[in-house]
Design brief:
Layout (H helix, E strand, L loop, with lengths): L11 H25 L4 H9 L4 E2 H8 L3 H13 L3 E5 L7 E5 L1 H12 L2 H8 L3 H18 L3
Helix pairs in contact: 1-2, 1-5, 2-4, 3-4
Length: 146
């Protein structure tokens, strides 16, 4: 006689915990890789956020911090030659931050150095990778700021 096991779908709370755990592990790997390149995780996140030039206030929103904190982060990135700041064409009071070529190279090296993340995603087969990407693309717009 064959028995059938019934499995129920995880609850929203279970999914939230799983996603939070994956995100935390990802950002630990990201922070460790950034540190190996002389950057704090905040500086590396800022670098990632300015791949397309953005106003300082928008950068603060993306990083979830106060605009006054962003000034110090951008000052450090600028001093390292990884980012640049310039006045907006339409309003000289607005400062636009963008990544430099060297900043792009450092960001690429940080991503390459995220060994645990590469191993984790590398353990997925093509079908699993596609399914994960599809699920992320489905959920992300619903989580993003509106």
């Amino acid at each position: 006689m064959a028995t059938t096991a019934t499995t129920s779908a995880p609850s929203t709370a279970d999914l939230m915990e799983s996603v939070a755990a994956v995100a935390a592990a990802y950002f630990q790997d990201f922070a460790a890789a950034a540190a190996r390149h002389g950057l704090s995780s905040s500086q590396a996140k800022a670098l990632k956020a300015v791949r397309e030039p953005v106003p300082m206030r928008a950068l603060a929103g993306r990083l979830g911090c106060d605009a006054s904190n962003v000034t110090g982060i951008v000052d450090r990135l600028e001093a390292l030659g990884l980012a640049h700041r310039e006045a907006a064409a339409g309003d000289r009071r607005v400062k636009i931050v963008g990544i430099t070529d060297e900043g792009s190279e450092v960001l690429d090296r940080i991503r390459t150095d995220m060994v645990r993340t590469h191993e984790a995603f590398g353990s997925l087969d093509a079908e699993q990778r596609s399914a994960l990407q599809q699920l992320c693309r489905q959920v992300l717009p619903l989580l993003a700021e509106r």
